[in-house]
Every structure is written in structure tokens, then in C-alpha cells.
Amino acid sequence: MLRILVPALQVGPGLTGVGMYTQELLRAMVSCDRSDLEILVAGPHPHCLDFLEGIEGFRVLGLPLTRDDSWGRMLANHTVVPQIAHGERVDVVLAPNFVAPLWGRFRTAVMVHDLTFIRFPETTTRAKRIYYRLLVRRSVARAERVFVSTRTVAAEVRDFAPQVSSRIRLTPEGVAPTFLAQDDEADGQSSTKRFGERRAFLFVGTLEPRKNLERLLQAHGNLCRQDPSFPPLRIVGGRGWEDAGIRRALKAHSDPTRLLRLGYCSVEELKAEYDRALALVFPSLYEGFGLPVLEAMTRGCPVITSRGTATEEVAGGAALLVDPLQVGEIEAAMARLARDLRLSDELRRRGRERAKAFRWTRCAELTLEGLREAGTTRAATGRSTAR
User: Fold this and answer.
1) pLDDT digit string, tens, across residues 342-375
2) Contact, 259 vs 181, CB < 8 A?
């Protein structure tokens, strides 16, 4: 029996990307073949893992934090997590957030979501930049398996740490089952019939520099200046970091009444936003996957996203692509979708088909397969488990 520990440090109230990834991965693992596995899940908010209660082969443990913030979680990852792993005689620790514990006589596997701290270091805080630069390379080097969600990130990890190339495993993320229900898919309604209900553009993401909200606001402001009746922009996402430029762009918008900041939304609220949006506009400078792209496509919402990053790979020809550095391209794509009903219909159809290729159950199956490999690799190679 292979014993696996998953530190669910980011699973708690107000889920962000890594927390959502961890939660959905664990949910999907429930339906996988786990007859040879015991999975321990340790988190600071065990009540957020109630969906695992009573599931054979799973056990949820509390994970105390000295402080409930990013620094408290980083500290716990290298202190409390190894203690739990040793006490529970764990074989493999799966780190869902870039960095596995850097000490301990157990094997590790790590999920690398992106390499923002290398590709766009100016879009992260100085503290996080230092932390990731110091520890991610060591974490990846120690790991028996390195999971990535796109081929784009796989190529970047190979450049970043060539010695781990043979240990990289592609485990594409999926769409949460709660997003899959489609009222208008069941009755065959098209956007031609529902177009009047879709009256606003939508942005979804943490308000931080990498999401490129400043250029999106500039493009939308230009369109509103040209046409005071141009559809408004609804902004979903909590406040992030280094957001002074975003605050300036909000103030500089030609018509602030055409902007609506909604903050963090629940899943049900977010589904409603996708369902009534003319399009999701997601022109990130850089993404390792871009889950909002899939969520929007699943809900039949057309997508505008960035060329040359992982979102292009995820979209797979089912979105309008723009150069995220060119305000004019973002502007032109929004103007086109605001008036082109036929294109809207086509993107909705292609987007739904594309989204069907991404399921969390497949991600979970591939991840468990990689963890089984990690559980046997060291025994076969005879490498020490202490680093």
C-alpha cells in the first residue's frame, strides 16, 4: 500500500487558483482506482475538505499554522508537513504549489503551475520572487515526478531544469463539474436567440500585473470614448499585489460608470457572470494554464485571450487571440465580438467542444499514475531519500 500525503495548504475560504486546483484534484481522485493507495490530506481548514469525509482510502488531518497567510503556509510546508509525513510513515508527498518540503526521508512530487518568477519577475512581489527563485529549482530537482498542466510549461521547465526532463508528466487541468450544467445547451438555444441577454464583457482574475488588466481597461476606455453605449466591463477578482497601475487605470477610464468591480465571486455567482457575458476577455501577459478560459467555454461564453502563452494552447483554436501587449488588438477583438453575432455563435460552439477535452478525472488519473511511478523510482535506482 502506497501512502501519499497531500498538503492542502491553499484550500480554505476564498479559494484562489492553487487552492481550487488542489480541491478539484482531490475531488476527482475520489472516483479513481485507489485500491493500492492510502491518501492523507493535511490542511489548515479541514472543514473545507468535508467532501472527503467517509471516503474509503482518504484521511483528513489538521495542519496548524503559526499565522494564516502566505508566509505561515510557506513555513508550515518545511516544518509541519515533514513532521506529519514522518509521523504517518508516508511514502510520497505531493506538493500542489511549486515547492515540496526540502528535507525528509520521503519521496516527493511537485506541481509546477507556471514560471512567472522567471518569465515575468516584475509581476510578482519581491518576497515571492526571492522565495521561488531560491526553492523551486531545488524542489524540482528533488522531485521524482514534476507535474505540469500544459506543454507550454513542460518546455519551460525543461529549459529551467534540463536534468528533470524525463520526470515531467503532463496532467492537464479540467472544468469543475459544477460548471458543466448548461441550460441553453439542453434546449438548443443559440446566442442568436439569447444575444440580447449578453450585455457586458467580463474579466476574471486576481487584480495583479500579470493579468494585464491595465491594457484591457485602456482598450475598453477607448471603445467607450468612441461609443458611449459600448457594452460595460464587469471585473471579477480579489485585490492582488503591485496593483497601483491597475488603480490608476481604473481612475483614468473614459467612463467609470461602464465599469463594475464585483470582487471575489462564489462558483454560482461566477457561473451567472459567464452566462450573461458577451465574452470573457482574458489577455494575460503569461499563464501556465488559464482556467477561466475553460470555465467560460463550458458555459457557452466566447473568449478573447492571449496569443503566445499557455492560454493559446488551452483554447485550441476556439477563441479570438490577441497580442496582450497591443492595446489596439484587444480593442479590435472586443469591438468585433460586440457586433458580430455569427462569430459569437461560432465561438460558443467551438468553445464548448474544446472544453469537453478537459476533465478533472483525467487529471487525477494521470497524477495518480505519476505518484505510483514516484513511489517505486527510488527503490529501483537506489538513490538516497535524504537530501
Assistant:
1) 999 999 999 999 999 999 999 999 999 999 999 9
2) no
Residue type, 158: R
Could you check whether 2-174+359-381 and 177-355 share the same CATH topology? yes
What are the extents of the domains in the chain? 2-174+359-381, 177-355
Q: Which amino acid is at 333?
A: A
Give residue 181's pLDDT band: very low, low, confident or very high (50, 70, 90).
Answer: low
Arithmetic mean of pLDDT, 168-183: 83
Backbone angles phi, psi at 7, to 5 degrees: -75, 110
Q: 177-355, which class in CATH? A: alpha beta
Query: Roughly how many angstroms between the first and final C-alpha of the chain, as a whole number?
Result: 24
- Going by C-alpha positions, the residue among 235, 349, 358 that lies closest to residue 302 is 349
Query: Hunting for cell 457557452 — which residue is that?
Result: 300
What amino acid occupies position 213?
A: L
Tell me which of 102 and 330 has the higher pLDDT.
Answer: 330
Contact 286, 212 (CB under 8 A): no
Distance CA 377, CA 367 (A): 15
Provide, for the chain, the percentages of residues in helix, strand and coil under a 3-state DSSP scheme, each rounded to the nearest 5: 50, 15, 35
Mean pLDDT of 70-76: 92
Integer Cα distance of 38 and 56 in angstroms: 9
Q: Please give the grid coordinates belonging to residue 307.
A: 496569443
- How many whole angstroms separate alpha carbon 294 and alpha carbon 179? 10
**Coil/strand/helix, residue 348:** helix
CATH 3.40.50.720 fits 2-174+359-381, yes or no: no
Q: What is the mean pLDDT of the chain?
A: 91
Residues in the chain: 387
Report residue 99 as a C-alpha cell: 515547492
Residue 119 sits at the vertex; the CA angle it makes with 261 and 247, to the nearest 5 degrees, is 25
